[in-house]
Amino acid sequence: MNDRLDAQFAFLNEADRLKSVLRATTLCDGSRRENSGEHSWHLALYAMVLADQAPKGVSIDRVIKMLILHDLVEIDTGDVPIHSSGGAAHASADTIAAERRAADRIFGLLPPDLRDSFRAIWDEFEAAETQDAIFAKSLDRVQPVMQNLACDGGTWVEYGVTYDQLEARVGTKVARGAPKLWDWVQTKVRPWFG
Fold first, then answer.
1. What parts of the sequence cross the membrane (predicted)?
2. Is 125 exposed, middle or buried (0-12, 13-18, 19+ CB in 10 A)?
3. pLDDT tens digit string along 124-150?
């Protein structure tokens, strides 16, 4: 029992480091950059509040688990904003490999049953092939959009984001998992871009 608890708390203490990983997106009030721990918490809340936007059969409990775990790898890799000049690196083979190594290390701190369970959830989110993962990815992309809208463009201004870039990098993912949500979001986004 002590070895199991030692491993569980080692993981939990390591996960606390996610609070130190700053993202490009600011808080809704624009006062500072959001950290990845805050982002994960906010996404879990998004899943609960926007559960009615999920396609039939989506398990919101599983979606929440994915959203809580999905960015833990940023403890090792940092956050690569999709609209930054390094945004092309967001889905590069090097970034994907680095994130997998980070997942091995971080989830490897856990007892084997939790390690395997959490890693499977993380892998499912990354693959984005199940309905749960597709919806989770949609929320992961829409949350920064809403925060940028709340603070008059936020980092869109900083990175010179165009509507076409937003549509290509974000809209397609959101529309895939929550088409009605993206339809609504577009009514808010289009006027901002003029």
1. none
2. buried
3. 999 999 999 999 999 999 999 999 999
